[in-house]
């Protein structure tokens, strides 16, 4: 706020020096520019303050060790933080909440659900995580991220009230007809589980993820996810494996809530005809079925009819088709370079990603005349099994495998939304090198025993006469994208970002990329990586 005030004073002082004959239009434009600049600076200051709440590496490890002792204390603390902001759980009960958890597909399910109910004319709220490009994406009103002004206003109000304990949470109440809330991690002890009276709950596909927090078995994870169940509140789930389904059923009986399994989307289509989905991929059909049941139950309110297939209304059909959820099975075509983006971060979601990419690439290449180059851009975070995911990707037959950390630029100025203090840069780069070695092991391009790996824009020269994939590590997302596109992506070339030159040996390796009729790039492994890529490929997300 102080920075904005100083900036405003300087610009107003400059305005006073303009000639008296300056036109009103010019003065008006200057005032608009002043306001936009102040808002931009204020937002950056707010996000920088928010980033101070990110836990550093050592403290994060300590939290993981202590998490199993009294995790329920987190929810007690959360209620206390809520009271300190002037809100109560009673106020949350009036938001008409749809609460959704799961391992993969929960965000897409929420996106389908929110779009359907918005198309019915309801004013919707939508909370999700993580964000792709800007923090404001996590909170949406009527499908749009909250404005910079509103984010800044509410952030500073809450931050000031909670600054004594540095809590990484912020919440505000807006006048909405309903709120779709996506669980962050797990369910039972997630901060969103202070919700007491949701209208309906949903569970998307379950799998293994966040094992240090949720448990090492699918049964333990299912127990955590079922923690959002509330007495008498209907719950819908997609088809699950037998073991996690048994846990969900037992928890539903224990808590006293009805649990229904959603039918396949084909059963709806038998009555309504083929349904077109705005999100690609076979997995989205399960998410769409879950969203239809959640939407119908919310619309009916007090009437519960189970999870039978029904004929979707024209509004529901339109909502499914119009749903957008960037970074999930998304395709962007920029001239000769086509990007396939999917933030798959578990082995289950990676299997679905590979299936989707294989189908898409087959159609794309069948219509091309001339050589097609396939490129993998990959990274992972946390405790995820990178080697297992890379093994699933190997059959895609990439010509290049490129690895980089979730750092958008080596220069982090004006990039507060995508800074991560929970892991060191050194660890991020080391992980990229580990991923490179894993891929080389899979594709038969291992380096010599004991050889040292050079960091930062350095390729691994193949040691065998014939290899299928060249592998490279770059220091940031921008340098990786610039090398992959070789100036052939007009959107990336006009993004206004600085050009990061590569070493001559790396430039020489790019000849196939320059000569190919089509370059197909799969970006996957981490939603944060996908978000960093979208910052450059879809400038509207950063505006």
UniProtKB/TrEMBL annotation:
Its EC number is 6.3.2.17. It comes from Oncorhynchus mykiss (Rainbow trout). Keywords: ATP-binding, Cytoplasm, Ligase, Magnesium, Membrane, Metal-binding, Mitochondrion, Mitochondrion inner membrane, Nucleotide-binding, One-carbon metabolism. Its main location: cytoplasm. Belongs to the folylpolyglutamate synthase family. Catalyzes conversion of folates to polyglutamate derivatives allowing concentration of folate compounds in the cell and the intracellular retention of these cofactors, which are important substrates for most of the folate-dependent enzymes that are involved in one-carbon transfer reactions involved in purine, pyrimidine and amino acid synthesis. GO terms for biological process: one-carbon metabolic process. It is found in: Cytoplasm; Mitochondrion inner membrane; Mitochondrion matrix. A monovalent cation. It catalyses: (6S)-5,6,7,8-tetrahydrofolyl-(gamma-L-Glu)(n) + L-glutamate + ATP = (6S)-5,6,7,8-tetrahydrofolyl-(gamma-L-Glu)(n+1) + ADP + phosphate + H(+). This is Folylpolyglutamate synthase.
């Amino acid at each position: 706020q102080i920075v904005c005030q100083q900036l405003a004073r300087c610009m107003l002082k400059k305005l006073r020096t303009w000639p008296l004959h300056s036109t009103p239009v010019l003065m008006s434009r200057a005032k608009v520019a002043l306001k936009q600049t102040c808002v931009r600076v204020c937002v950056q200051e707010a996000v920088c303050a928010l980033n101070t709440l990110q836990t550093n590496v050592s403290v994060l490890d300590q939290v993981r060790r202590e998490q199993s002792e009294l995790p329920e204390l987190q929810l007690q603390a959360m209620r206390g933080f809520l009271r300190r902001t002037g809100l109560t759980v009673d106020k949350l009960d009036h938001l008409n909440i749809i609460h959704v958890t799961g391992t993969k597909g929960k965000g897409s399910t929420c996106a389908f659900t929110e779009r359907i109910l918005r198309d019915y004319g309801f004013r919707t709220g939508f909370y999700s995580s993580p964000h792709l490009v800007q923090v404001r994406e996590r909170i949406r009103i009527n499908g749009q991220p909250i404005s910079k002004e509103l984010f800044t206003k509410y952030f500073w109000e809450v931050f000031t009230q909670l600054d004594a304990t540095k809590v990484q949470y912020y919440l505000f109440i807006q006048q909405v007809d309903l709120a779709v809330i996506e669980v962050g991690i797990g369910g039972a002890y997630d901060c969103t589980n202070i919700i007491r009276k949701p209208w309906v709950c949903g569970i998307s596909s379950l799998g293994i993820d966040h094992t240090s927090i949720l448990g090492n078995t699918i049964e333990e994870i299912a127990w955590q996810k079922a923690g959002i169940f509330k007495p008498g509140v209907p719950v819908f789930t997609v088809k699950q494996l037998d073991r996690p389904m048994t846990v969900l059923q037992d928890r539903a009986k224990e808590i006293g809530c009805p649990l229904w399994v959603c039918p396949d989307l084909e059963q709806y289509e038998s009555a309504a005809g083929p349904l077109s989905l705005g999100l690609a991929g076979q997995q989205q059909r399960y998410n769409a079925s879950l969203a239809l049941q959640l939407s119908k139950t919310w619309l009916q309110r007090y009437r519960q009819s189970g999870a039978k297939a029904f004929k979707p209304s024209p509004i529901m059909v339109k909502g499914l088709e119009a749903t957008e959820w960037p970074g999930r099975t998304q395709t962007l075509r920029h001239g000769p370079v086509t990007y396939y983006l999917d933030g798959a971060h578990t082995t289950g979601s990676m299997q679905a990603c590979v299936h989707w990419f294989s189908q898409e690439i087959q159609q794309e290449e069948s219509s091309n005349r001339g050589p097609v180059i396939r490129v993998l851009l990959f990274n992972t975070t946390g405790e995820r099994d990178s080697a297992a995911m890379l093994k699933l990707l190997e059959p895609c037959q990439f010509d290049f495998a490129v690895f980089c950390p979730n750092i958008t630029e080596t220069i982090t100025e004006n990039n507060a939304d995508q800074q991560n203090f929970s892991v060191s840069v050194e660890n991020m780069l080391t992980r990229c090198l580990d991923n490179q070695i894993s891929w080389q092991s899979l594709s038969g391009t291992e380096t010599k025993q004991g050889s040292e790996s050079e960091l930062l824009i350095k390729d691994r020269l193949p040691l065998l006469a014939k290899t299928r994939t060249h592998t490279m590590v770059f220091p940031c997302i921008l340098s990786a994208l610039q090398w992959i596109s070789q100036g052939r992506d007009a959107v990336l070339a006009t993004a206004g970002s600085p050009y990061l030159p590569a070493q001559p040996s790396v430039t020489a390796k790019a000849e196939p990329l320059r000569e190919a009729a089509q370059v197909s790039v799969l970006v996957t492994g981490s939603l944060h990586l996908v978000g960093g890529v979208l910052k450059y490929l879809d400038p509207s997300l950063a505006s």
